[in-house]
Amino acid sequence: QRSADLNAIDHWLSTSALPGPDDIASIGLALGDLDIRDYALRRISSGRLEGNRIDLWLWVARHMADDLLAPAATVAGFAAYRFGNGVLALEAFETALKASPHYRLAQMLLAALQAGYPPSALGNIGTGDIEAAEKED
Question: What does pTM read for this prediction?
């Protein structure tokens, strides 16, 4: 399943279309896996995506129930932050924390944003054990 989730992230990052309900649900569930979430963060940080597909992440977060919202909203906020949209990032992080007050990544990114860290400082976020995440299935 992990391989399919990674492929889905790549697919939706490589197209300008937005996913339908079934794919939104799949992406939202997949982002609950920290390895998949971190893979998405690395892809956003790569700088090879026009606008980091902020629209995709906002679209997914917008359609998540509260119990699945924090990872999706945090990824949306991260994409906005990396692309220099601090206002949108702030809103996304606050949304994530409203849904899940102890969601650690949202807490850390919100603290970085409020402390004035530049978007470029986020370059290494999500660079955990990529090889393990990509090889597992």
Answer: 0.88
pLDDT digit string, tens, across residues 30-64: 999 999 999 999 988 886 665 568 999 999 999 99
DSSP H helices, the chain, are 2-13, 21-30, 34-45, 54-62, 66-82, 86-99, 104-114, 130-135
CB 89 within 8 A of CB 78: yes
| Whole-Å CA distances, 72 to 15, 32, 78, 107, 116 | 18, 8, 10, 14, 23
Give tens-digit pLDDT for 75-134.
Answer: 999 999 998 999 999 999 999 999 999 999 999 999 999 999 999 888 777 665 444 444
What's CA 90's distance to the chain center, in Å? 14
Domain residue spans of the chain = 2-135
Say which DSSP state 31 is in.
Answer: T
Q: Which pair of structure tokens corresponds to residue 4?
A: 């399919």
